[in-house]
Amino acid sequence: MCEKSRLEPYRKSILIKQIRDFIGVVLVSLALAACSPDAEIQSPGVTDDAILIGSSSALTGHASFLGSQYTLGSKVWFNEVNAAGGVHGRRIDFLTYDDAYEPDKTVANSRRLIAENRVFMLFDYVGTPTSVEIIEMVHDEDIPAFGFLTGAEPLRTPFRPNMFHVRASYYHEAEGAVAFFVDHLGFEKIAVMYQDDAFGLAVLAGVQLSMRKRGLEIIATDSFVRGSLELDRPVDTISKSGAEAVILVGTYSPLAKFIKGVHDAGHRPYFHTVSFVGSRAFARAILEEGVDRSQFDRIIVTQVVPSPYSENLETVREYRAQLAEHFPEATPNFVSLEGYINARVLTRVLSETGRNLSRETMKQTIEGMSRIDIGIGMPLTFGLFDHSGLDDIFYSRLGNNGLFSVFDLPSEEPSEHAVER
Fold first, then answer.
1. Strand intervals (E) in 72-201
2. What confidence tens digit (pLDDT) does each residue in 262-310 have?
3. Which regions in the chain score pLDDT beneath 70?
4. Among 125, 166, 121, which residue's Cα sits nearest to residue 141?
């Protein structure tokens, strides 16, 4: 059963993307042909037997589930690759620093990774407010940064030549949410409650675009401070708005508390949030808050990877088997699956780049990749001016059992084996 959502507004953009990517492939091919295969190329972080990559992510604090699971998923695949001899005889050394989802720490960690550790590239960064703080550094140091756990537009637009994304953007997720509520359910009264930082504003902008192209405006907005659980004001604002659906932006704990607060105020709308929330942690927080189980099916999360329990996708089956082998105490979830997919894409890039590895040759390889099958049911395509590999989203809802499952439109029937446990 196909889990991929098909959103009409993106058909034209996909055609434009294909034309642009074709031009990019031609230009990249010419650039590669101009490089001497015998030239000795040196880059920081590359030795005869290893490639050093570095990450700054939330390993502690209120977003720790996201950082720990994202990097764990990548480690699963790197362990597999290293056990098999690495990539062209080089093992992948993955250095991770904790920033606790605090931008200042992200900047300090990144400087350390580049200047002291001399990593080949940055990888698996988590969050919008953290990642936007390294945009200038990545540009100034001319270092590749690959695989962000954020879909924020400032990391993509204007074009960032050293930043590469595997996942769909928050604009795609916002469009998916509005399409579900407005086009599918027929709602017109949509509110947004968001974390007051770059993350919240990025999703808010996407929702505004999607609403306005349907001739609608957001009925109410309110916000909260990142890391805070002070939610009385936004609960009051949204509860009084009469919203039929509320799009939420933030981490799992405050969003779960907000839902409980709105219910306690006597309002029972639909709720949606984007994939960054971490569905497993979000479900746990909802259970801990004591949210009414009869309302669980009104809690929707858009996802950027398939269900971690899909049986018909080869890469997902391998992810579960390898996770059980390398980290037997871990439970499959959307976040670690995304990290795992990031790592698989990266090692494919490194493999196709060849033994003569440099930052520039790797970037040329990425930009020449088109419609690559990575075993998740949707092809990966980059281009010379397109550094976002995937555009597809999936819908998931919370079941009465406290588990999120993927569902398709328009039938809304849960997909078999699609439960995140």
1. 91-98, 121-123, 145-146, 163-164, 190-195
2. 999 999 999 999 999 999 999 999 999 999 999 999 999 999 999 999 9
3. 1-42, 410-421
4. 121
